[in-house]
């Protein structure tokens, strides 16, 4: 599953291996970015029927792991911005308008 190193009594630092079934929930699937990353060219084995995963992927500008981290970081940043925007917007609409009194 992964490698764990116990540094301190309360702190356990664990790293997951990239080929672990825990990362894909045991479905033997792979990342979409593995084949469709920037500049990637997938080379499939044509002798096997219905091959989902390519044999070799070459010419990638970035590794798919890095692209996934950037992608998830952008999603987290957008989520935080949406939460902050929602809070600000709700405060604007919740304020009482005293100008009509």
How does this structure look, described?
The protein has one domain. 3% of the residues are buried. With 101 residues, the chain is an alpha+beta fold. The strands form two sheets. Strands 1-2 form a two-stranded antiparallel ribbon. It has a two-stranded antiparallel ribbon with strand order 3-4. Mean pLDDT is 78; it is low at 8-13. It has helices spanning 32-36, 64-94; strands at 2-6, 12-16, 41-43, 56-58. A hairpin with a 5-residue loop joins strand 1 and strand 2. It is a multi-pass membrane protein.
SSE arrangement, N to C: EEHEEH
Number of strands: 4
Approximate helicity band? 25-40%
Number of spatially distinct domains: 1
Strand order of the biggest β-sheet: 1-2
Mean pLDDT: 78
Low-pLDDT segments, ≥5 res: 8-13
Main β-sheet description: 2 strands, antiparallel
Task: Specify the structural class.
Answer: alpha+beta
Radius of gyration: 23 Å
Give the overall shape, derived from the CA principal axes: elongated
Count of helical regions: 2
Distance between the termini: 66 Å
Topology, element by element:
Elements lengths: L1 E5 L5 E5 L15 H5 L4 E3 L12 E3 L5 H31 L7
Antiparallel strand pairs: 1-2, 3-4
